[in-house]
Amino acid sequence: MDCEMVEGGKSVKVKGFRFSAVEAAVKKPGRLDLALILSEVPAAVAAVFTTNRVKAAPVLLSMQHAAGGVARALVVNSGNANACTGAQGMADAAETARLVAEGCGIPEGMVLVASTGVIGKQLPMERIRAAIPPLVNAAASRSMEEVARAIMTTDTFPKLETRQGEAGGKSYSIAGVAKGSGMIMPNMATMLSFLVTDAAVDPAFLDKAFRRAVDSSFNIITVDGDTSTNDMASIMASGMAGNAPIREGSPEAADFESLLSGILLSLAKQIVLDGEGATKLVGIHVRGAVNEADAKRAAMAVANSSLVKTAFFGQDANWGRILAAVGYSGAEIDQDRACLSFDDVLMVRDGIFVGGDAEARGTEILKKREFSVTIDLQLGSGNAVVFTSDLSHDYVTINADYRT
């Protein structure tokens, strides 16, 4: 069975994967909220998880199961995070994996488990137990888009992306889904994301390439500065494209990693665009820092500043808030050398407002749905980019009564 997704109006197949999504009424009825990704063969797997020291039960279990480097299935629910649920939560995550394994006829240790939703509530296992048989029986009857819909919480649209490549004369595809809207902050994935590919990939290279791709995508976005207890991103490679395994340093390795990074960056930007209450996607570019770490530190301070983000929402070209954030970031700065632009509109040169019509032109830039802020510290060769959103009234409204 092949996964089919639409890319540019044409069908894209990922050989060897089946999909299913059903309604289990995990939080409330009326929507798909339990999904399955099933590989027909043992697939190479790579996964990264939240660095939050408070980790949900499914994260802890999947860390164990992914350590073997091989997986056959991933089961995920929305509506309940199964986080801060103690021994019962771990037992429920393990039972979910066992029931899926038994239904699919695969080893329990090859089942990854993920959850997203409200923290601190026990899973409604009676409803999940009842939903797993139809979930397994429906494998291949659903699309990956329906998996994307089933994992949504406060998301307003499903997030999908695909790419195609070639290795050794064999065509292969990579497809991915993600969910995320709030609790978005780097230090892993800051959401859930699941990818599949039919390329044959050496497990060691798959792990390295995936981690590098995560660092240049999910780890450079922020919506609200909060890192979740349930963050997880994974990729399964079935090898059914029939190519010789792609290895580190092989001719096809760079192309594969480029495609992988492209998918993850697209999904990451979709998450920021769908940030809770967000109306803007803003790229914060810092260049000329003393080193890359300083550049990332400065960019992240600007991207997470509530004052900066509210100015973006209000379309206020308040560049002073941005330089202030750089100043407290811990990055080295000489305020008499710093320059700042909104897109191609220079606002600050050598620490001083340029004057003239810069205010009006800068305000016009901030009215756009997507724009960039560039801060040139003129101190060295360090560069970094972070993508962020604005902070609107709706963010408070959504998160004030999320549990209800």
Task: Tell me briefly what this model is.
With 404 residues, the chain is α+β, with helices and mostly antiparallel strands.
The best one-word shape is globular
Give the total of beta strands: 17
Find the structural class using helix and strand composition: alpha+beta
- Helicity, as a percent range: 25-40%
Q: Could you give a short account of the major beta sheet?
A: 8 strands, mixed
Overall structural domain count: 2
CATH T-level topology of the largest domain: L-amino peptidase D-ALA esterase/amidase
Which segments are poorly predicted (pLDDT under 50) over 5 or more consecutive residues?
6-11
Order of helices and strands: EEEEHEHEHHEEEHEEHEHHHEEEHEEH
Number of helices: 11
Radius of gyration: 22 Å
CATH architecture of the largest domain: 4-Layer Sandwich
What do these coordinates show?
With 404 residues, the chain is of the alpha+beta class. It folds into 2 domains: 2-271, L-amino peptidase D-ALA esterase/amidase (4-Layer Sandwich), CATH 3.60.70; 281-400, Ubiquitin-like (UB roll) (Roll). 32% of the residues lie in helices and 30% in strands. The chain contains 11 helices and 17 strands. It has helices at 57-66, 86-104, 125-137, 144-150, 203-215, 253-273, 292-304, 306-313, 319-328, 358-366, 393-400, and strands spanning 2-7, 10-15, 17-22, 34-49, 70-80, 111-118, 159-167, 170-179, 192-197, 221-222, 232-237, 281-289, 339-342, 345-349, 352-353, 370-376, 382-389. Strands 3, 4, 5, 6, 7, 8, 9 and 11 form an 8-stranded mixed beta sheet that branches. A 7-stranded mixed beta sheet has the order 10-17-12-16-13-14-15. Strands 1-2 form a two-stranded antiparallel sheet. Strand 7 (159-167) and strand 8 form a beta hairpin. Helix 5 packs parallel to helix 6. The protein is globular. Residues 6-11 have low confidence and may be disordered.
